[in-house]
Amino acid sequence: VGESIEIETTTYEFTSVCPFSGLPDFATVTIAYTPDRKCIELRSLKYYLMSYRDVGIWYEHLVNRMLNDLVNAAEPLHMRIEISAEPRGGLSSTVTAEFFAE
C-alpha cells in the first residue's frame, strides 16, 4: 500500500524517416514511467511506435511528441522517454524528455 513502481519498456527496432534525406533512421526507444491509475498496454504501444515508420521527423521533436502523447494516454506520475539514435554521419545522438506530475 502506498508503494510506487516504475515500468520500463525498450524497443531496439524503432524506425522513422530523416526529414532531410528521406532515408530511414533507426533508434532504440526507452519509455520509463510511474503509473498512477493507468498502464500502457504493450500491443497498443507497439502499434503506436510502428506508426512512425514512414514519418519524417527529427528526434528532438519526436521525443517531445511521444512524451505528450503517452502522458495524455496514461496520466502517469512520472515519465521519461529516451531515444538513442544510430550513428548518422559518424555521430550518434541520445535525446531525453521527462514529465513530472504536479
Characterization of the model:
- It is built from 2 helices and 4 strands, in the order ββααββ.
- By secondary structure, it is of the alpha+beta class.
- Strands 1-2-3-4 form a 4-stranded antiparallel β-sheet, covered by helices on one side.
Distance between the termini: 21 Å
Helix content: 10-25%
Order of helices and strands: EEHHEE
* Overall body shape: elongated
Q: Which structural class should the secondary elements be placed in?
A: alpha+beta
Sequence stretches where pLDDT stays below 50 over 5 or more residues:
none
Provide a quick synopsis of the model:
By secondary structure, the chain is of the alpha+beta class. Helix content is 25%, strand content 42%. It has helices at 42-50, 59-74, and strands spanning 7-17, 24-34, 78-88, 91-100.
Which key features would you list for this structure?
4 strands; 25% helix; four-stranded antiparallel β-sheet; alpha+beta; 2 helices; 102 residues; 42% strand
